[in-house]
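Is this the right way to post structure tokens for a design question? Let me know if I should format differently. Anyway, here goes:
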């Protein structure tokens, strides 16, 4: 049975290395830079466009290229960590991220900046590799708590990136001031990981290299992500968008067929579709949608000029960061610390269910109450609790159903599911704001933001339904 083949053996011996009291906070810092590097760039896009003298469409590849690299590299690096040992791969990824960060500040050039962002995109693999490190280093009594704290901390990194950008950048400043922060974070993370992360052997599995599997996964995922990222620019029913989407689906279908027949596949199909792991991946996709809608729509809503639109608060990037986002981030950090204890005390699917119910409540409040600053602050705080606790529960839903030597790749798949959810959310928000506008203008209507909040609530409710029925999935054969 698939369930038996995925069952995780007990870790009989704890690996030598730093104590859990040191290792867990260190890995929290290391994996948090993933979210910081993704979101710190978002507020800088207008400045980058102006200072480099390029169009908005060309500058958009700064974000798209980063996501493409993340999508392609995360499962591949997760598998490499499983085979060669997580410490080696973790340090290698941090070196690549440091090189990419240095490129972003070394030249004032769009092509170089895009290359740097591609290299920074490998940082998305830090989280699944970090999960593998914890699983190899901690006993079962500490593992779930450690995973919850690390996952929840990463979830607040997105807001931390926005806050850092708001503090470091002022109108007219060189946009590279924020990228210097990313250089410093990469150096600090590399030093911390070098001294703290313990060595552990990989599976050492051989049997040939699955080149076709790697190529198919890279091409299929990239085509789908390009369709999502460029759909608004090209047109959602334009030939390039449709061709990318269809090609992505077809290539991934062929990739799945190939992986089922390859003796030593790059990613075993059962790690993607088996009834014991599929609920966690689907829930991650849905939580990724809700999380990014909360982050993106709220940040844009509070910056709308009320004099032109009749709603919003006209907040600057700095005000958005400190007034509207920072209180919620503090609450999110607290929730992240608690999430590990909750997952340890209760089943992960039940914790996820409660977290998603909190998310539904937060979006429901936001739909009807968003005209005062205190209402937005409360909504952000509630939604940060949802995201932090949900992120803490998702790895725990996987950990009991995959072997020790599949930990990195399984969590890499889960991370990619969240990434695709975030990409879809970005496309949805952009489409809503572009199509639901104030009559006679191109200014988004208040109804556009309300519609985005409704979508966030619906996806949070859908994730709750997945969590509530995850045990039933184990009796239904999907793979």
């Amino acid at each position: 049975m698939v369930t038996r083949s995925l069952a995780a053996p007990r870790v009989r011996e704890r690996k030598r290395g730093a104590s859990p009291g040191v290792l867990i906070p260190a890995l929290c810092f290391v994996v948090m830079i993933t979210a910081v590097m993704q979101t710190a760039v978002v507020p800088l896009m207008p400045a980058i466009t102006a200072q480099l003298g390029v169009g908005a469409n060309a500058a958009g590849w700064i974000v798209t290229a980063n996501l493409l690299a993340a999508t392609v590299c995360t499962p591949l690096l997760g598998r490499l960590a499983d085979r060669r040992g997580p410490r080696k791969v973790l340090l290698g990824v941090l070196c690549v991220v440091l090189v990419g960060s240095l490129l972003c500040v070394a030249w004032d050039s769009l092509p170089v900046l895009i290359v740097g962002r591609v290299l920074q995109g490998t940082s998305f693999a830090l989280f699944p590799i970090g999960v593998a490190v914890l699983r190899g280093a901690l006993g079962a009594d500490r593992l779930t708590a450690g995973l919850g704290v690390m996952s929840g901390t990463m979830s607040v990194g997105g807001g931390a990136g926005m806050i850092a950008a708001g503090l470091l950048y002022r109108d007219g400043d060189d946009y590279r001031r924020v990228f210097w922060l990313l250089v410093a974070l990469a150096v600090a993370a590399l030093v911390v990981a070098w001294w703290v992360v313990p060595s552990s052997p990989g599976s050492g599995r051989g049997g040939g290299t699955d080149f076709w599997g790697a190529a198919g996964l890279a091409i299929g995922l990239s085509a789908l992500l390009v369709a999502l990222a460029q759909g608004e620019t090209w047109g959602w029913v334009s030939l390039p968008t449709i061709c990318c989407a269809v090609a992505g689906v077809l290539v991934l279908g062929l990739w799945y067929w190939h992986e089922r027949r390859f003796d030593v596949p790059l990613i075993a199909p059962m790690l993607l579709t088996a009834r014991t792991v599929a609920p966690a991946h689907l829930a991650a996709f849905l939580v990724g949608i809700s999380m990014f809608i909360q982050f993106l729509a709220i940040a844009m809503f509070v910056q709308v000029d009320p004099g032109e639109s009749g709603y919003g608060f006209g907040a600057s990037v700095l005000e958005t960061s400190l007034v509207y986002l920072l209180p919620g981030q503090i609450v999110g950090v607290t929730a992240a610390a608690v999430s590990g204890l909750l997952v340890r005390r209760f089943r992960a699917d039940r914790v996820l269910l409660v977290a998603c119910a909190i998310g539904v409540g937060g979006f429901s409040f936001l739909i009807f109450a968003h005209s005062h600053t205190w209402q937005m602050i409360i909504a952000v705080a509630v939604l940060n609790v949802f995201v932090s606790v949900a992120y803490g529960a998702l790895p725990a839903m996987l950990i009991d159903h995959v072997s020790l030597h599949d930990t990195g790749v399984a969590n890499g798949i889960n991370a990619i599911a969240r990434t695709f959810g975030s990409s879809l959310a970005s496309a949805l928000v952009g489409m809503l704001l572009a199509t639901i506008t104030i009559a006679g203008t191109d200014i988004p209507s208040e109804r556009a933001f309300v519609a985005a909040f409704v979508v966030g609530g619906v996806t949070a409710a859908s994730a709750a339904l997945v969590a509530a029925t995850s045990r039933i999935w184990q009796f239904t054969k999907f793979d």
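Format looks fine. Someone answered above. Worth noting: The chain has 20 helices and no strands. Residues 1-16 have pLDDT under 50 and may be disordered.
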